[in-house]
Amino acid sequence: MALTISEECINCDVCEPQCPNDAIYMGPEIYIIEPEKCTECVGHHDEPQCMAVCPVDCISPHPEWNETPEQLMEKFKLLQQQKK
C-alpha cells in the first residue's frame, strides 16, 4: 500500500530526503508521495522512513493503493531495475 501526505503537512522538509525511492516531492502547497514509486520502504528499511521522521504524523496509508507486502517487494524490484 502506498502512503499519502495529508493537509496537516507543515512542509518541514524532513520526509523528502528520507525516501529511498524518490517518491516524495514538493507539490503546489504540500509534499506529495507518488504512489507508483512508494514501497513503504520495503526492500530498504523495516518501516516507512517518512512516517518515522514526520513531526506531525501527517503520513498514512493511501486509501486507493492497497498492496500486499509481496506486491510492494515486486514494485521495489522493478524500481531497482529501472535505476540501472
From TrEMBL:
Transmembrane segments: none annotated. Coiled coil: none annotated. The keyword Metal-binding applies. Keywords: 4Fe-4S, Electron transport, Iron, Iron-sulfur, Metal-binding, Transport. Residues 1-29, 31-64 form the 4Fe-4S ferredoxin-type domain. One of its GO terms (cellular component) is cytoplasm. GO terms for molecular function: 4 iron, 4 sulfur cluster binding; metal ion binding. Signal peptide: none annotated. Its cofactor is [4Fe-4S] cluster. The keyword 4Fe-4S applies. PANTHER family: PHOTOSYSTEM I IRON-SULFUR CENTER, PHOTOSYSTEM I IRON-SULFUR CENTER-RELATED. This is Ferredoxin.
